[in-house]
Write a structure and sequence with these properties.
single chain, mainly beta, ten-stranded antiparallel barrel, 10 strands, about 10% helix, globular
Length: about 170
């Protein structure tokens, strides 16, 4: 009897540790297609928080997005609250509901999949440190299309499995 109870408890414990997957959103509408959403001008507002939840940076982003076939260019122009500026230009490739992407500060390739109104992708960012160096951070990036013009984005960043913080951005298509 104790063995059965222990097995049942272990199964319950494992089930409670199950994480959300992108396919959990398969029925959600409107359907997210990066080629459709990130096409033209898009503005975004966001913040970076450290592991304690303290907001360390606030930003506004102006994006110009273009596509040739299934290859898109997302030109992001960041302006931070302290006046500093940064640019990131993504090259995105669409293959059905799968996406790959590259940028100058991305190590290798970002890879992800969309399902319903959601996209999840992962990549390694060569992030700038305050001392002038860089650090490779593992980025776990989730996007949810809330309506035809509004997209929410939450990215957690970590190193060696230790979470350092998160980025929250809201995009609005013009």
């Amino acid at each position: 009897m104790w063995k059965k109870l222990a097995l049942a408890f272990a199964a319950l414990l494992l089930a409670s540790c199950a994480s959300v997957t992108v396919t959990d959103y398969a029925a959600e509408k409107p359907k997210l297609d990066l080629k459709e959403y990130f096409n033209g001008k898009v503005d975004a507002w966001g913040m970076i928080q450290d592991r304690s939840g303290k907001v360390t940076k606030r930003m506004f982003v102006e994006m110009t997005c273009t596509w040739t076939g299934d290859v898109g260019t997302l030109d992001e122009r960041f302006t931070y609250a302290d006046g500093t500026k940064e640019t990131r230009v993504w090259t995105i490739r669409k293959d059905g509901d799968r996406y790959t992407g590259t940028a100058a500060d991305v190590v290798g390739e970002a890879k992800g999949v969309a399902s319903g109104n959601t996209l999840r992708w992962n990549y390694v960012l060569d992030a700038k440190r305050d001392d002038g160096g860089t650090i490779h951070l593992d980025m776990d990036d989730w996007m949810w299309l809330l309506d035809e013009k509004t997209l929410a984005n939450r990215t957690t960043f970590s190193k060696f499995g230790i979470r350092f913080g998160e980025v929250t951005i809201f995009f609005r298509k013009r």
